[in-house]
Amino acid sequence: METYVWTGRTRDGKRQKGEVIAKSKDEAISNLRRQNIVVTSVSTRTKRLNLNLLFQAKVKDKDIVVFTRQFATMIDAGLPLIQCLDILAKQTENKTFASSINEIRQDVEAGSTYADALRKHSHVFNDLYVNMVAAGELGGILDTILNRLSKYIEKSMKLKRQIKSALAYPSTIVAVAVIVIVVLLVWVIPIFSKMFTDFGGVLPAPTRMVMGTSDFMQHNIIIIAGIFGAIVFALNRYYKTQNGRRTVDRLTLHMPIFGMLIRKIAVAKFTRTLGTLISSGVPILDGLDIVAKTAGNKIVEEALYATRQSISEGKTLAEPLEQTQVFPPMVVQMIAVGETTGALDAMLSKIADFYDEEVDSTVGTLTALLEPMLMIFLGVVIGFIVIAMYLPIFKLAGTIG
Question: Measuring CA to CA, which residue among 144, 128, 143 is closest to residue 84?
Fold first, then answer.
């Protein structure tokens, strides 16, 4: 959806101007014509850099969950929509979020639907949220939809925590190992090197290897840092290209250790999101479009778009999913059963619950496996350096003895 700035005149000749949200310029003009406005010009609103955003507090998922749950409670109690938004804006501690809620309230007061008002704040409310709200408004079940949204966001937050916990420990150990090794090679080993050089004699091979590595790092630390930075920059630029992202995402799905976890996370996210959208009344084609945009993996995204295209041609959901070979056979079979029984949304939720537990179990298993492996790696590398530097001392002590 884009925001278009328009100028025009009414049937009685009065000039007017304003903004309208639409998928395309033609749709914006059609919407204005239905309001009996003769359009003279329409253009996409220029996106300007707002420096205030740099200093505003970020709206977290937790803020949105609390807002959505409280909103659902007040709507269910019979409070008017505008009054609910006014109350929530006043009690929200996050100033950025409170400002957005106030702007939404003003748009609703001006005659906009709640979903259209949310679309202007895409930095806070994503496509999934907006489309579910639109379906809730259309079906008259906004309170039910908001409760589903809050549960969905809570489960998404849990999945994110699981991913972070899977990556936090190995990342920390590797970072500490790199820092320790660099400190030893750049600052500690040169002290030993000078002492051994003064003693003279032939040093053991491991000692010469470590001293050579230390000497190389001391004289080329800037070049090494530059090469490392250039590699990171090049990989980042490559990943931003279509082919680069496709290649990297395909490799991540086939990684020996984390590939299985990434695939399970993708399945859990896909089934949870699509099940929530379908149960809320969002058409399956629109649901697949939203799920594909939020997939986070190019291979999964392309598989979902291919599935969407097949469904638009009259096929079922299970058949094209199986052809993509991205999703496990069990998932495809369960979706096929859900389509046959007419309970696809419930089946998708069951699959999501199962894979949430699988992700939790896999994270625990990987953490248990990586912990000893990383500690052994750290011990071997640092132990080799320490032993290599003590070998000449042992040799000297033997000679004196």
Answer: 143
Q: Which helix (H) or strand (E) holds 7?
A: strand 2-10
Between CA 317 and CA 312 the distance in angstroms is 10
Average the pLDDT over 201-228 and give the result. Answer: 86
Q: Are 172 and 374 in contact (CB under 8 A)?
A: no
What DSSP string runs through 181-247? HHHIIIIIHHHHHHHHHHH-SPPPHHHHHHHHHHHHHHHHHHHHHHHHHHHHHHHHHHHTSHHHHHH
Q: Please state, in angstroms and rounded to a whole number, the distance separating the CA atoms of residues 102 and 89.
A: 6
Res. 51 pLDDT band, cuts 50 70 90: very low
Measured at the alpha carbon of residue 242, what is the angle toward residues 239 and 244, in degrees to the nearest 5?
35
List of residues 6+ apart from 63 with CB closer than 8 A: 92, 94, 97
Summarize pLDDT for 54-109 with one digit per residue, the tens. Answer: 445 688 888 999 999 999 899 888 889 999 999 999 988 888 899 899 999 988 88
Cβ partners under 8 Å of residue 298, min gap 6: 242, 245, 246, 249, 250
Residue that the structure tokens 């389509």 belong to: 339
> Cβ of 373: how many Cβ atoms within 10 Å?
12
Strand 2-10 with 37-44, pairing:
antiparallel
What's the sign of the alpha-carbon dihedral 274, 277, 278, 284? negative
Tens-place pLDDT, residues 180-213: 888 888 888 888 888 877 776 678 888 888 888 8
Q: Which ranges of 92-204 would DSSP assign to H, the alpha helix?
A: 95-109, 114-119, 127-139, 142-183, 189-199
Angle between helix 142-183 and helix 258-279 axes, rounded to 10 deg:
160
Q: What would the two tokens of residue 1 be?
A: 């959806």
